[in-house]
């Protein structure tokens, strides 16, 4: 796939990197981990070690970037759960995020609720399953899964004492004119209620990104390969600003080096200001969909039954 195509009618906007250790409202810091997940027997020890390492990485922790737009596909009421796939097919992705306090020496933020959402292998989001992802792709209904069209690939996890949350999901696909990405919000002050997370405030709204070489290799595999067209690379994306981990670029480790279909593990540390509040209306384009997207897609309203 080539990586130079994008909708030229969309104004190119970049998230602004804020450096030098100044904590801005809604700010965040991110740094990738270089090791794979520990086995279950050693997970507790590893988490304690990585939390300690975060505190010592002052330059990484204090490299802050402004929040970016939540994009056109956000829905309230996502479920608290580790596995958000609901049977959606794709390359497995185990995502581990560590939330730390940028205003207090990068100490873990216990109780932080991390919310993520992203598209499926063909570029469709739950709640907006008829919105055209650009290029040529089968209809979302042809994927053969039993996923709930209003809730798949959305969810919350609540951090323990080490600030760590883990998600089991799939590698996202893409849609025009955006690069491959995952949306996230960090909430504090609320609580789990009726299967979702209620109350509190949003401290940060952002996006996670993937190395182009890995993404383009995955997009040659089934079911991703059924979505043809020109993929937007990181350099041409309207949101990613080229800052690496400090701009949301995940550290990725293959489960099996010679077989990408076996999946990846993704790592990032997210440092927030727990006193900040963010509306989700930050900079960055977010990705207006192709002009032929139906009214039920982004920019309109989600399907009538959407509840997440």
Keywords:
single chain, 308 residues, mainly beta, four-stranded antiparallel beta sheet, 3 helices, disordered C terminus
Question: In angstroms, what separates the terminal alpha carbons?
Answer: 33 Å
Percentage of residues in DSSP E strands: 25-35%
The biggest sheet, with number of strands, parallel, antiparallel or mixed sense and barrel status, is: 8 strands, mixed
Number of strands: 12
Average pLDDT confidence is 79
* Number of helical segments with 4 or more residues: 3
Helices and strands in order:
Layout: E1 17-18, E2 28-31, H1 43-56, H2 58-61, E3 64-65, E4 92-101, E5 107-108, E6 113-117, E7 154-158, E8 164-170, E9 181-193, E10 196-209, H3 212-218, E11 251-254, E12 264-272
Parallel strand pairs: 4-12
Antiparallel strand pairs: 1-3, 2-3, 2-12, 4-5, 4-8, 6-7, 6-9, 9-10, 11-12
